[in-house]
Amino acid sequence: MSPLTRLLTFSVVVLLVLITVTLGAQAWLRQQEVHILRSAKADLAEQLQAGITLTGGVDATWDEARLTRLSQVTGTSLSVLDRPPPAADDELGPFQFFQELPGERWLVAAHPAPAGTRIHRLLQRVVLALGVFALLIMAALVVTVGMRPLRDRETRSPFAARERDMRSLSLLARTSLRQQAELDQERDERIRAEADARHRLQLLNRALEEKIRIGRDLHDGVIQSLYAAGLTLQAAQQLSTTDSAQAGTRLQSALELINRTIADIRSYIAGLSPRQVRRESLHQALTEIVEELRAGRPLELECQIDERVSTALSDDQLTETTQIVREAVSNALRHGGAQKLWLALNAVDTGAELSLRDDGIGFDLNQQNSPRGHGLANMQARAERAGGSFEMVSSLGGGTAIRVSWPTVNAS
User: Fold this and answer.
1) Most CB atoms within 10 A, among 19, 183, 291, 298?
2) How many domains does the chain contain in total?
3) Same domain for 187 and 66?
4) Is the pTM of this model over 0.70?
5) Which residue has better confidence, 379 or 55?
């Protein structure tokens, strides 16, 4: 085999290897980008579902104000249509999320895909440049082979061909190194961009979780306290014409309840647990909650709290316990018309168990119009957030009972 033939063979092999590596890198980068986009779509769907739950659920009214608020929370463009538009086929293009609404309508959330096609366009240009370069090398080698007799006649020196071969190899090596450096630089930029995107997504998730937490705290704590204060003021108004002394007592109770609610709001802003239960007994804290929500109505309470069990609860479990009791008592008084409550916290084999039962009118859990609003969803979410489990039993005329099981380190 002549030196020129060996050079031609070596050049073709090097070019094929370089093109193969480039195509492989392009396929790998595209696979990574598709994976990241799919993960981003899944996160968007989860955030949108959480936002829907936070702003009232699927069955709530879908007006412009709610769409604007939900769009600001999720960072998407929202619209309500009579039927869903066809989904986009391009995995790297804009992606959409659909949620069916009552009345045969659809909530459509559109979000632009990240600008991730730049690397692929560059790689395509690199591959095209390599192909053109390979063709030029092949053409140059063919011309070289065809003109070899002329060059042989012009010069018989064996060093001339070797020098030309060395120059061609040197040029090919420099070109390969330069292209490899460009690919390495683009890969590094892509990795940094992906890391920044993941960091921004984590920040957005934390912000959304904090908004949901504040919404639950306001619904289960502040709103229930304000509702109780309103009932107390209403009772004082009714007594103002018949018993001014009793009306004044009710007004004083409402004022104290409003002041405690203001203190709770400050605690939420500061990130503290309501009433700082650790500084007082859990029995006292829960009794105060029932007294607030009673708002002067007749109510008999049987409360059995094992303080040893309460000390085994974590801070999150203790906070969620007070909020779950607040929501359950409010529902029993407002919706169930209860006149007697049984509240207990005891040790069980799995840890601690909180139970609350009332003698209210109850409701049918199997009916679609049963009162399963934010209150029930919030109580279940609070229990699961602190690692516990939530269960509710109710029947028409048989009252309602809830049970929350908390895992504890030492429940004995």
Assistant:
1) 183
2) 2
3) yes
4) no
5) 379
